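Section 3.1: Structural characterization of target chains.
Under the original work plan, the team committed to producing a structural model for every single-chain target entering the pipeline before any wet-lab resources were allocated. The record below documents one such target. The sequence was received from the expression subgroup and is listed exactly as submitted; it comprises 354 residues.
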Amino acid sequence: MQNLILVTGGAGFIGSNFVLRWMKATKQPVVNLDKLTYAGNLQNLAGIAGNERHIFIKEDINNADAIKRVFAEHRPIAVLHFAAESHVDRSIHGPADFIETNINGTFTLLEEVRAYWSGLNSDEQKRFRFLHVSTDEVYGSLNPGDAAFTEERKYSPNSPYSASKAASDHLVRAYLHTYGLPTLITNCSNNYGAYQFPEKLIPLMILNAIDGKRLPVYGDGKNVRDWLYVEDHCDALALVLERGRVGETYNIGGWNERTNLEVVNAVCSILDELRPTSRPHVDLIEFVKDRPGHDRRYAIDATKIANELGWKPKETFESGIRKTVEWYLANEEWVKGVITGEYHNWVSLQYVNR
């Protein structure tokens, strides 16, 4: 059994950031399995191209035979499961993909993990871990005065996306209690940072503002999210993998609640400084019809992971959002590579005529 980890979805936004940080911080090899859908991008991993410790496999987690071969050949000591469809708006327009990947794919992966783990010797079984990366959206929506989500919060998903992630969480928990598979679950707040596909709020606002396009803000702009810088999230995941208690859930948040409008204003302010134009960028803000079932507020209570594992985010929202804007400004070639016709079609579908 090699000292090797398997990462699913490692060419996506959070997954690629994790792989890059893991490769930099450790000497352990990584098998990176990704289907390379629209949000999976090998350019995210250009910094480790040619590194023999990084083994990339283009594959779908629903392909049981392929997953079985990966386990047989590489014999990982842990699996970090990032692979998922993750955009609420896309789940509203096309929920079938979310059921197929997030539920069926997680089930297929768990079955192959269980078969592989069952064949290990007792010491290897004790060492093995399956870390399932999930979202705070499974908990539903909070009112303005409500306490933040803790790990004991009842699940109450409100979109096809969050419902599919809730189902995958329940499957992982069931495999722990039914089969003894040593699992861990993390539920994170809204991530932002480098390599995020520009359908999400922050990169969409950055790129639209750079191009002088309107900045579409849903509803009244007062929906609240807790914002977590992606590198802080990756550091937390590494800690959970190393020292988290089997069977536990850990909420990972940035302690940075902001309204969507506050986030967009922050982006505009930084761009006014770094890319000034004749008009302030906030003049591009345009309120558009809200999306169906838009949760009003998410907030993560990350006390448990702080107390048990000593983790807390290094970045404030102010430092993280500046780093993010600067990254997109400095990486125009990466941006050009992901702004395809499919992306433009999606933006038109989602925001034109709202």
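The longest strand covers residues 129-135.
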